[in-house]
Amino acid sequence: MIQARSLAKHFGQLRAVDGLDLDIAPGEFFAFLGPNAAGKTTTIKMLTGLLKPTAGDVRVGGFDMLREPEKAKALLAYVPDFPFLYDKLTALEFMQFVGDIFRMNRADIAAGRDELFEKFHLGSYAHELTENLSHGTKQRLVIASALLHQPQVFIIDEPMVGLDPMHARIVKQEFRDRARAGMTMFLSTHQLSVAEEIADRIGIIHHGRLIALGTVEELRKQSGEGGALEKIFLSLIDAEEAHLEKRAAAEQRAP
């Protein structure tokens, strides 16, 4: 459902993403991990068509993101780490606005909105201006609005930020249910426990390169570490840093 081939983005001398290859199947729950400035957000922006690659290509549902952007984007929803809301719209008006963008009919908007408001405990905020909502309530509203048009691909950056444990559990369960129903989930997060709990596969990016890819058990074998994902993640990052330092030293010694 999501394919990236030799995907790269350079900003001057900085290789923010450097030859990334990904294949994410329909209905797969994929977690994308990495330290700060590893290339996660840059990758996501290219996958969603917000940033043009320096090289390589992206396909969503078989549609090339550069050549058929409208068809590709119609299949997906994207929630960034700092989502945008229109402050002077109520929660209900915002959902209507999103439905209109995707050319949904009024009956489908109303039915989808009511179902999502109930799932995410948003009904009591329907007539509140979004500027008056708490951070966690805004996050639930943004997630609900992204799901309104029933996307085939859902890309979300740091979904649990601002959510209390009760609402985080609701969101995680909804994500699981959507993936089981066939929606492809692409989640980027620093909360490794969330990735370990719900992801089918995990990709780890560092310095723009995909350094590990697989299930938690496969990553354990690659790292040689047991235990929680946090320990595995840190071991893989440390190994990559050691490799890069060794290579840099060798290049400096070379004539």
Structure description:
This protein has 255 residues and is an alpha/beta fold. The chain folds into two domains: 1-75 and 153-163 and 181-190 and 198-255, P-loop containing nucleotide triphosphate hydrolases (Rossmann fold, 3-Layer(aba) Sandwich); 84-150, no CATH class. It is 42% helix and 24% strand. The chain contains nine helices and ten strands. It has helices at 40-47, 69-73, 91-101, 106-119, 135-147, 165-180, 192-198, 216-223, 229-253; strands at residues 2-11, 14-24, 29-33, 55-60, 63-64, 76-79, 153-157, 184-188, 201-206, 209-214. The strands form two sheets. It has a six-stranded mixed β-sheet, sandwiched between helices. The protein has a four-stranded antiparallel β-sheet with strand order 2-1-4-5. A hairpin with a 2-residue loop joins strand 4 and strand 5 (63-64). Helix 3 packs parallel to helix 5. The chain is globular and about 70 Å long.
* Total number of distinct structural domains: 2
Major β-sheet annotation? 6 strands, mixed
Enumerate the strands of the largest sheet in spatial order, edge to edge or round the barrel. Answer: 6-7-8-3-9-10
CATH superfamily label of the largest domain: P-loop containing nucleotide triphosphate hydrolases
Number of strands: 10
Please give the CATH class of the largest domain: Alpha Beta
> So, CATH architecture of the largest domain?
3-Layer(aba) Sandwich
Which whole number gives the mean pLDDT?
Answer: 93
Oligomer class: single chain
Class by SSE composition: alpha/beta
Order of helices and strands: EEEHEEHEHHHEHEHEEHH
Estimated share of beta-strand residues: 15-25%
CATH overall fold name of the largest domain? Rossmann fold
Low-pLDDT stretches: none
Number of helices: 9
Fraction of residues in H or I helices: 40-55%
Give the terminus-to-terminus CA distance: 47 Å
Radius of gyration: 19 Å
Cα shape: globular
